[in-house]
Each structure stands twice: as C-alpha cells, then as structure tokens.
Amino acid sequence: MKTMKKYILDLTNLQLKKTLKYVVEQDYRIDQIIEWIYVKKTASFKEFTNLSGELREELDKNFFLRTLKIIKKEISVVDGTIRYTFKTADKKYFFAVFIAKNGKNSICISSQIGCNVMCSFCSSGKVKLARNLSRGEIIEQILQIENDAKEKISRVLFMGMGEPMLNFNNIVSALNSIMSNKEIGIGKRHITVSSVGIVPTIKKLADANLGIRLALSLHSVDEAQRKKLLPNNFGFSIKDILSVGKYYLKKTKSHLTIEYVLIKKINDSTVDAHKLARLLKQHELINSNVQANLIPFNPISGVQFQAPEHELIQKFKNILKFNGINANIRRAKGADINAACGQLGY
Ligand code: SF4
C-alpha cells in the first residue's frame, strides 16, 4: 500500500521514533537522523552520509525534509538585515527576518499566514488570516535562514506575521525543538514570544513554564484607543493583560517586555507616558525583569500615521525612566526593505 509522504519537521522526536521503528532498529541511528535534521541543518536526506544508502532512500521515499521555498531575499543596505519571503507547499506566502548583530544574530519568525488581529499600524494585519503555520514550518524558517545567511542564529523572536498565542500547540511543540540541546539548542533566555494579550493562552504558556521571554504588545493606555489601534484584540482589558504579565513573571521567573508603538499625536503624549508608568506600578511591574520597548512607528503603505519627533520619543522614555522603568527605544532594523517592526506585509 502506498503511504502518504510526511513532513518530517512536523513530527516531534517521539513521533519520529514511533514512525521509524520498523525501518530503524537501533536508537542511535534515530539520534543520528535527528542530528542531521536539527543540528547540522542538512537540507537533503542524500547528505545523511553516516546512514546506509538504503535507509537514506527509505527516508526520502517517506518524508519531505523541506516544504518551504525562499522566493525572495532582500538585503538592507543600511544595516544588513535580510527579509525573506517564503512560499509554502500550498502556495501561500509569509515572511521572516534575519537581523545581524556582531555575532549575536536574531531571527524574527512568523507563526501564522496573515493575521486577524488587524493592528492599524501593522502591514501583516492587512493580510487576512489564511492559516496557522505548522510546527515544521515554524522550525524550517530557522533551519533555512541559518543555512542561507551562513551565520549562526542565537536569538529567536516570535514577532513576525501572526499572533503566536493563536497557534499555541504548534508554537510550544516548535519551542521544545528550538530549545533542546539535541536539536536546535537555543537557550530559553534567548527566545521571545510576543502577544497582543490573549489572556487564557498566556496563562497556559506561563503554566507550561518553558522559561522563555514574553513580550506584551500594549501600545496604548486607554481602552477605547487600544480598541482602535488593535481592532480585533479579543476584548481583554489592559488590566487583565498586565495582570497576566505579572502572573507570567511570577510563574517563570523570566523576562517581560511591554511593547509600545509610538504614533505621533495618538499615543505619544507625556500624559500617556505617566499613565503607562502608573499602570506598571499598580501591577507591580517595575523591576529588573521588566522592560518597556518604545517602537517609533515604521511607515507602511496606505496608513497615515507618523512617528513622533525624536525629542518627544526621548521625553516619553525619560518619564518612564524617572519612574524607575527600564525603558528602551527600539532602533528600526531593515526599514529600507520593509523588514522593520510592523512592516511584514505583502
Ligand atoms: S502587530 Fe502582530 S498581532 Fe498586530 S496585526 Fe501585526 S502581526 Fe498581527
């Protein structure tokens, strides 16, 4: 009977062991296969040279090792950031970004194709959600980009297209492989998952206690304004979101970032800055494990917003600092190739 070819990256190691047990007798052979896939990041079964030719053929007959194609690669002339456009086997498109930084390279990966949260400052939000990325497609972004860029990736940011907390199971399964020393091997402190604040799922992530960093996309201190900026924010209040942030920190002893896109004359006033400081204080979120990331709005087509002037951004940051908050202005990377924060759309 002809069996359907499976996407090998969609299988956890346990599932792979079960699937292969009739073909591969010795456990160490499976460990070798896992090493070729995740550690050596080899793109073809033919190159698994310490396996017999027969076994390599068997793998090739039964599994796909890659399903994504890089169809476009744009490199920033300003800072060397690379924007990758991937095409899936079912002919859908999404993006990932490689950010070079003196040996500490990061990758910003997608979790969904399109995004239904529809943030008004984000071009991914202009793309209707097509589907979740699978576990394998999440992992393959890292494997392919590390091979293509020929640079080691040491940080992973789930801040590309999509809301990670709406693809929870695949994200957690991918995270287990990303963090495992026998697989990709990136430490929990070097992984950040962002969310607009899907409270029950963040709680689940906290309870899973993976120890990764969490970024909460707040962007406003006013409920009505936040609803305008993030129209499909699932109705969780700012209070609930900050409370779950506090819960996350308590449970995981990890690190929390409050993300705040600064938009001229919308959410950039000194009153907003003071209110943000007050909110963080009320939720006991002023400590060394919490950072406020201020992101000056990056231009996207069809959207009239602007970034505030530099002095205003600095003033906003100083107010937070004055209140004891570890505040940071995020420098845009890859803005000239539409690879910066909020620019990952078609
Ligand atoms: S900012 Fe994030 S959640 Fe909002 S539309 Fe863009 S990808 Fe979706």
Layout of secondary structure:
Layout (H helix, E strand, L loop, with lengths): L5 E2 L5 H8 L6 H13 L13 H10 E2 L4 E7 L6 E6 L5 E7 L5 E4 L3 E2 L17 E2 L2 H15 L3 E6 L9 H12 L11 E5 L3 H10 L4 E5 L5 H7 L8 H15 L3 E7 L7 H13 L7 E7 L13 H13 L3 E4 L17
Helix pairs in contact: 4-5, 6-8, 9-10
Bound molecules: iron/sulfur cluster (SF4).
Give structural notes.
By secondary structure, the chain is α/β, with parallel strands linked by helices. It has two domains: 6-64, DNA polymerase, domain 1; 69-337, TIM Barrel (Alpha-Beta Barrel). Helix content is 34%, strand content 19%. The protein has helices spanning 13-20, 27-39, 53-62, 135-149, 168-179, 199-208, 223-229, 238-252, 270-282, 310-322; strands at 6-7, 63-64, 69-75, 82-87, 93-99, 105-108, 112-113, 131-132, 153-158, 191-195, 213-217, 256-262, 290-296, 326-329. It has a ten-stranded mixed β-sheet with strand order 3-4-5-6-9-10-11-12-13-14, with helices on one face. Helix 4 crosses helix 5, helix 6 packs parallel to helix 8 (238-252) and helix 9 (270-282) packs parallel to helix 10 (310-322). The two termini are 42 Å apart. The mean pLDDT is 95. Iron/sulfur cluster is lined by residues 115, 117-119, 122, 124-125, 161-163, 196.
Task: Looking at this protein, list some descriptive labels.
DNA polymerase, domain 1, binds iron/sulfur cluster, TIM Barrel, 14 strands, 10 helices, two-stranded parallel sheet, alpha/beta, 346 residues, 10-stranded mixed β-sheet
